[in-house]
C-alpha cells in the first residue's frame, strides 16, 4: 500500500501518541490500525452527525430594530448560504470542521458564505488575528484575511478529539485482548508429534513445510477435510476446551464503551447514540441544555459581533439561533400545555403554530394575544375585594 496513505492513517490514529512510524508499519499492522480507526471514527462521526443534525434543524431568526424579519439575511442562513450548498449541507460542513479541527472559519465572498477547508491562523493579543492560505474546495485565496473580515469559531481550549484518542489508545488494549481471546477460544488447536526417525529423513524439511503451509491450512479452513500425514508424524486435536469463552457480545460492549466516552466528550447523553428508548426524553433535554444551547450561543455570538457589531446590537439588529424546533412535538401530548400558553396570553396562535412546526395563519386574529377571565392582576383583585367581591 502507498506510503502516503499509511502516513495519513497514522496521523489520524496517533496525534501525539503514534505507536509506530510510517517507515516501520507492516501490512498486518496496517490493517490492525485500520480496524482501530474504524471503531474510533464511527464513534466520533456519529457524535458529530448528531450535533450537526440538531443544529441544522434550528431556525436562524433575524431581527432588525428588535423586530423579527425574513429578508436576505434570513434566506442566507436558513436556505442558501452559497450557490453550491443548501443550509443543511453548509451547517454539516461547518459543524464537522469545528469538531474535527477544534476550529472553523467562515468567510463571505460575493455575498456567499463559505466554510474554509484549511487555513493558517496567526494569533495576536492586541490586534486582529490574521488568516492566510485559506482554501475552499479547489480554490486558495491569495489574500490575508483579518479577524474582522471572517467568522472564526473555536470549540474549546482543549481539543477533545485528542483527549478521546488518548483514552482510546489505552482502552484499545482491552478490546484487542478480548478479540484475541475470542479468536483463540474458537480456533483449532492441536499437538503435532514428529518422531526422531522422521526428523532424520532427507525430505524432512520439505515434508514439514508442505504439511504446515498446505495440508494444515486446507484442513483448518475446510468444513469437511482429511489431514494427510507423513510417516513418523502424529497429530492430536485438543480443540478449544482449555481456552476462554469470550463472546462477541463482550467485545460489542467494549466497542459501545468507546461510543459512550466519546459522547460524553461531546456533551451528548450516551443513550441517544446507543438506541436506548427508556429515558430518551430526559436525555434529549440534557443534550439540548448542555450541548446544543451552549454551542448555538457560541455560534450566534461570533455572527453578531462580526456581522452587526456594537452599532447593530444597539439598534436591535442581530441573529438568534432558535433551538426550540429540534425536539419533536407530539400535538396530542401537549394539547393541554398549548391551551395554557394561549389562555395565559404568553403566546399567540401563530407563535404556537411555529413552535409545533405548523404553517402560520395569515390573519390578524392569529397574531393577537388572548387571556381568559381567570387571570387578573393583584391590583384588580384587591379592588374587587374592597368593593365587596370574593376571590
Automatic annotation (TrEMBL):
InterPro entries: Phage/GTA_portal, Portal_HK97. Pfam families: Phage_portal (PF04860). This is Phage portal protein. It comes from Eubacterium maltosivorans.
Amino acid at each position: 500500500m502507498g506510503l502516503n496513505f499509511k502516513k495519513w492513517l497514522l496521523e489520524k490514529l496517533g496525534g501525539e501518541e503514534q505507536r509506530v512510524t510510517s517507515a516501520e508499519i507492516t501490512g498486518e499492522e496496517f490493517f490492525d490500525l485500520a480496524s482501530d480507526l474504524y471503531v474510533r471514527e464511527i464513534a466520533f462521526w456519529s457524535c458529530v452527525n448528531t450535533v450537526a443534525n440538531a443544529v441544522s434543524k434550528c431556525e436562524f431568526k433575524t431581527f432588525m430594530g428588535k423586530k423579527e424579519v425574513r429578508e436576505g439575511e434570513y434566506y442566507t442562513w436558513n436556505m442558501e448560504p452559497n450557490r453550491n450548498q443548501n443550509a443543511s449541507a453548509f451547517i454539516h460542513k461547518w459543524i464537522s470542521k469545528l469538531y474535527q479541527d477544534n476550529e472553523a472559519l467562515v468567510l463571505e465572498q460575493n455575498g456567499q458564505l463559505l466554510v474554509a477547508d484549511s487555513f493558517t491562523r496567526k494569533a495576536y493579543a492586541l490586534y486582529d488575528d490574521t488568516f492566510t492560505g485559506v482554501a475552499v474546495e479547489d480554490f486558495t485565496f491569495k489574500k490575508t484575511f483579518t479577524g474582522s473580515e471572517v467568522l472564526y469559531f473555536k470549540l474549546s481550549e482543549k481539543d477533545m478529539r485528542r483527549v478521546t484518542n488518548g483514552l482510546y489508545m489505552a482502552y484499545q488494549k482491552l478490546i484487542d485482548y478480548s478479540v484475541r481471546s475470542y479468536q483463540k477460544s474458537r480456533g483449532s488447536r492441536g499437538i503435532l508429534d514428529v518422531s526422531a526417525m522422521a526428523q532424520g529423513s532427507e525430505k524432512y524439511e520439505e515434508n514439514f513445510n508442505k504439511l504446515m503451509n498446505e495440508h494444515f491450512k486446507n484442513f483448518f479452513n475446510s468444513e469437511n477435510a482429511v489431514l494427510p500425514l507423513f510417516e513418523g508424524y502424529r497429530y492430536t486435536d485438543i480443540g478449544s476446551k482449555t481456552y476462554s469463552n469470550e463472546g462477541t457480545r463482550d467485545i460489542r460492549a467494549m466497542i459501545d464503551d468507546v461510543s459512550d466516552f466519546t459522547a460524553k466528550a461531546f456533551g451528548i447523553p450516551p443513550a441517544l447514540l446507543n438506541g436506548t428508548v427508556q429515558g430518551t426524553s430526559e436525555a434529549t433535554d440534557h443534550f439540548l441544555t448542555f450541548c446544543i444551547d451552549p454551542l448555538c450561543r457560541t455560534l450566534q455570538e461570533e455572527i453578531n459581533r462580526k456581522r452587526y457589531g456594537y452599532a447593530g446590537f444597539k439598534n436591535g439588529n442581530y441573529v438568534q439561533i432558535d433551538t426550540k424546533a429540534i425536539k419533536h412535538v407530539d400535538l396530542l401530548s401537549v394539547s393541554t400545555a398549548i391551551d395554557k400558553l394561549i389562555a395565559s396570553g404568553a403566546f399567540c396562535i401563530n407563535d404556537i403554530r411555529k413552535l409545533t412546526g405548523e404553517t402560520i395563519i395569515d390573519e390578524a386574529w392569529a397574531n393577537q394575544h388572548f387571556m381568559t377571565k381567570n387571570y387578573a392582576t393583584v391590583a384588580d383583585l384587591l379592588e374587587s375585594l374592597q368593593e365587596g367581591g370574593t376571590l
